[in-house]
Every structure is written in C-alpha cells, then in structure tokens.
Design brief:
This protein is of the alpha+beta class. It contains 17 helices and 21 strands. Helix 15 links the parallel strand 10 and strand 11.
Length: 574
C-alpha cells in the first residue's frame, strides 16, 4: 500500500508538510506515551501490557479497513489516558468523524504500516485462529502472554505456569467468570495472561499468603489472651470467696512506661485540664493554702508531682519558692513549659518530662512536695503511689507534703427514680429482657452527683490516711462502717467520697470535701447501686464492712467489696 497516495486520500497535502522521505529504519511511537519501537509487533504488545490498549482487537472489532485504522490511531493519540477516551467494543468514536483522519503526529509511521497484511499473515500462520481470538495467538507467539491452567488459577494458592508455546488450536475462546474480564481461556483450559497480569497475580497471591500468616498470628495471640483471661477470672473468683483484701499490692513502680502509656495519654488533651482548672473548690483551695502560708515556701525547693499545666508550681513560685521541679509524663508538659515561660517564671520553675519513677532530679533532696493526685473515691488511678515514691526518694527528713491527710467516707442514699433508671430499666427494654446489662451496671461504681436531699445518714469515715507517714500497702484497706439512719426510706445505694486536708506545719489550715452536702467538684461522688433496695427505719444503725484493693490486672483500677445486711457485693472502678 503506497503511503503517499493514502495520505492524499485522507487529507489535504498541507497536513503532511512534516512528512519526510528517509532511508532510516522507521520509528513507531506509542499512541499513549513517548516510547519508540523499530517495528509494530513489540509496540502492539507494549500498548496491551502497559496501557491496556489492544489496537488490533479494536480495529478488528470496528470493521477493519484502512480508514478505520487511521481514525483509531489518531483517536488514541488524542485521548489515550484521558477520561474522555472510550475504547469499549460497543463504540468506535473514531468512525464517522472526519476530524480523526487528520494526523495528530507529524510523520506518524504507524499510519504507513500495513495492518491488513499483518493481520492476514498472523491468521495464516495460525490456521486454528479465528478473527475473535487472533490477538491471543499473536501474543503467545511473541512471548507476551503466559498460559496458566484454569483449575490451578482458581483452586490453588500459586498458579501453575504451562507451556508457553502457541496451542495447535486456539479455538472456543470464552471469558472466565471467576477471573477478570480481560482474561480468557481456550479449549485446553489454559488461561492467557499478559506478563504484567501474571506478575500482578503473583503479587496478590503473595499478599494473601502474608495476610493469612498475620491472621494466624493474631489468632494465636487471641488464644493466649483467652488463657490469660481465664486465669484472671479464676483469680477474681478466688478473691471473691474471701472477705479480706489480698495481702500484697501491685504498685505503679512495677509498670513499665509502655504499660502505663494509655494513662498518661488520657491527660495529654487540654479538656481534662480545663475541667480541673475550672473546679474552683479544688484549684482555689490549693491557691489559698499556698498564698496563705508564704513562710512555708519562702526560699524552699519544691517538687510538684503530676504538674499538668503547672498551676501549682506557679503558685509555689509566686509564694517565694527558690526552685520548683514540675514533673509529668503526659505530653501536656510541653504546654506547661510554654505557660511557665509566658508568665516569666522559667527562672524558678523547671518542667521535667517523665514518670516520677523514672526521672532524675538535679538535686538529691527537696523541702516540700505538693501534688493534686486524688482520683475518684480518692484512690482511683493510684497516683498516690507516685507521690509516696517521690516522698521516699527525695523529701528531706522533716520535709513537708501537701495535702498531708485524706479520708474516705461512706453514706446511704435513697433515690428510687435513679435506681430504676439505671437497673430496673433493663427488665423491659421495648418488650425485651436484658438482665445481663443490669448485672454489668451493678458491677461498676458510678461516678455521679448525689443530691444532699437523698442522703439518709451522717457519713462514716472508713479510711484515714496520713500522707506523710503511710506506706503504699495501706491503700489496701478493710473497715467497718455504721450509718445511723435519720428517716424511714428505701435505701437504694451506698455512696463514697473523700475529704482533703492541708494542715501539718501550716499556720493557716485549709480543707475541702467532695461529699453530697458540699459544693460540687469534678470528682463528684461514687455511687454503688444495690441489686435489691431495702427499707430502713429512722434511728436504725446500718452496719457493714468495706474492703478496697487494687485490681490484680491493672494497678490503676480499684476493686471494692461491700457487706451490708445479708448482701455481699463487689464493684470495680476502672
């Protein structure tokens, strides 16, 4: 076919000013990228493998013919890789559109290529090859397709690669329903894949195998965790058979920094510090004590355990402390450093990032320790352990620690409406019983505010801690309580709270309470719901026993056991 005469047929001579006669080897540029080939067969393979464009299949399906081929090539050069390109077999946008007969690329050697002769020679060399599957045969012949057994491809983890030679008959080609639509299987059950498809398949198989190994590892870990949970459950059941708390106490010093990471991360967000700072009972009591006793702080070296935003450290600096070391493991310390600098106190206050149990101070001894370490029911989160650790390691003999005394108190409450909403609610949830949910409610202490109007008795002190002298094991305690009922009612729960004192060595003493009758704090109270409320009479003495100890699984959680009347109850704060 003469290229010059063809060009005159499809466009005016002005459109071919760039065409130059040459004796050089023709250069065929890909329709979708800038790569150049010395002949068409490798270009066809490249387009199929790299761009998923089967030029011969598109040309053949659209009806063959020279004009069809010219329009197709120019259409691909304009749109290949773009969103507007449509190469589906049902459409041939380059037909009946003369604009695609104008060359996009000057001197385009593909337009000079005799596609029809190549097609005829391909089908002649492979007699069994039909028009619909000659591309498969051609790609197999040039080594650009790999044949894989269909059954092996579907049923095994790795495909079995079959003979790469062209089958004697490539007839009856159909699309596999279990493989991508671009893959075909012949009459011998061989699936034909391009090299890229084959390697992509191997990659997916490898990824699947890695995922299976990962899932198997996770399953093994889960089975190990289940074994641990059985052991812990047995331990808790054993503890439940005894009214006495365990003799040993797992303190925070046994935890590694990584084991304790979640606790400190919970204090990294500003919101929890905003809540504590806005608790005027808490913050103003510390401020008033420190400012009201400047003689205790003047010229002293002070340690602030769990400094948070550094508010207590800055109070101490303003009260005349010579040096304040503020320690916190939470990332809030970075804000504390900025806050200290912002207020011009960085020459007095040094903020140190780390756990009290792990850090090294620039000094061997301090004169005073201040800390706001209290948690729900006083002991939740067990930060008291860190304060006692710091006291034993750094506080000089005769040094001071504030607060220096704390008590835990119990009282009885009557609030049938709250009890019904929390416990009886699960008896009928839209017509369904959910009693297991009620059991969960009854196992946990609930942090909420109890109204003083619902209090049935004056509080009974069940624990009294001298922070200056106590040991960590004393935080595990057992105590009797006696509540004198002041009116006839139905007792629905026992409520616990704590009081804090700043007294030892101070000329001006301060304290605050977290009880129902006092101004509300962010600690609120801890309510222990009774599974079955009972009636009480005015003047009756409600006697009981409470024991408290750390959770064997988590030193920051506490387990409480109550004996009241004939009830033996267990609760957890976690």
């Amino acid at each position: 076919m003469d290229s010059d005469s063809s060009a005159s047929d499809i466009a005016s001579e002005d459109n071919y000013n760039d065409w130059v006669e040459t004796d050089e080897i023709p250069q065929f540029q890909c329709v979708a990228c800038t790569r150049v080939f010395s002949s068409m067969p490798p270009l066809l393979s490249h387009c199929l493998e790299s761009h998923s464009i089967d030029i011969l299949l598109l040309w053949n399906t659209a009806g063959k013919g020279f004009y069809n081929f010219v329009g197709l090539i120019n259409y691909l050069r304009r749109h290949a890789g773009g969103a507007a390109m449509d190469t589906s077999l049902e459409n041939a946008p380059w037909l009946d559109n003369d604009s695609y007969l104008t060359p996009v690329l000057g001197g385009d050697q593909i337009l000079c290529w005799d596609v029809e002769s190549y097609y005829l020679s391909t089908t002649k060399d492979n007699p069994g090859c039909t028009e619909s599957n000659y591309t498969v045969a051609n790609q197999l012949a040039t080594g650009n397709l790999i044949s894989v057994d269909q059954t092996a491809l579907i049923n095994t983890s790795l495909p079995a690669v079959m003979d790469n030679s062209v089958p004697s008959s490539v007839t009856g080609t159909t699309t596999l329903t279990t493989t991508p639509s671009s893959l075909t299987t012949d009459s011998k059950g061989l699936v034909h894949l391009t090299k890229s498809q084959y390697h992509d398949l191997l990659h997916k198989v490898k990824s699947s195998q890695d995922k299976i190994k990962s899932l198997e590892s996770q399953l093994l870990l889960s089975l190990q965790d289940m074994g641990t949970m059985r052991s812990v459950a047995k331990e808790m059941l054993d503890l439940g058979r005894s009214s006495r708390p365990p003799t040993g106490r797992r303190t925070l010093s046994v935890l590694s920094a990584s084991e304790d990471e979640a606790y400190f991360e919970s204090y990294a967000h500003y919101s929890i510090h905003e809540e504590m700072l806005k608790d005027s009972v808490r913050t103003e009591t510390y401020r008033d004590f420190i400012y009201g006793n400047p003689d205790l702080f003047e010229g002293k070296v002070v340690l602030d355990v769990g400094c948070g935003t550094g508010i207590l450290s800055m109070f101490a600096a303003r009260a005349g402390a010579a040096r304040v070391y503020a320690i916190d493991q939470s990332d809030i310390v970075y804000e504390a450093m900025e806050i200290v600098r912002e207020n011009g106190l960085d020459d007095v206050v040094e903020v140190i990032h780390g756990r009290v149990e792990d850090v090294t101070l620039p000094v061997d001894r301090v004169d005073m320790i201040i800390s706001e370490w209290m948690g729900y029911f006083l002991l939740y989160e067990s930060m008291l352990d860190s304060v006692l650790f710091a006291r034993d390691k750094w506080l000089r003999p005769g040094g001071l620690i504030y607060p220096d005394r704390c008590t835990i108190n119990l009282t009885a409450i009557s609030n049938s409406e709250s009890h019904s909403g929390r416990v009886a609610f699960w008896d009928d949830v839209y017509g369904f019983k959910m009693s297991c949910m009620a059991r969960r409610v009854l196992r946990e202490g609930s942090v909420c505010t109890a109204s003083p109007d619902n209090v049935l008795a004056a509080a009974s002190v069940v624990a009294d801690f001298n922070i200056a002298t106590m040991g960590p094991q004393e935080a595990n305690f057992e105590s009797e309580f006696n509540l004198v009922i002041d009116r006839a009612a139905v007792c629905t729960c026992i409520v616990g709270y704590f009081d804090v004192f700043f007294a030892g060595g101070a000329s001006k003493k301060f304290s605050f309470s977290t009880g129902p009758a006092s101004q509300s704090t962010h600690w609120k109270q801890v309510v222990f719901m009774l599974p079955t409320p009972f009636a009480v009479k005015e003047g009756e003495v409600l006697c009981g026993v409470i024991s408290c100890h750390t959770d064997p699984r988590d030193p920051r959680a506490i387990v409480l056991e109550l004996k009241v009347r004939e009830l033996k109850l267990k609760y957890i704060l976690q």
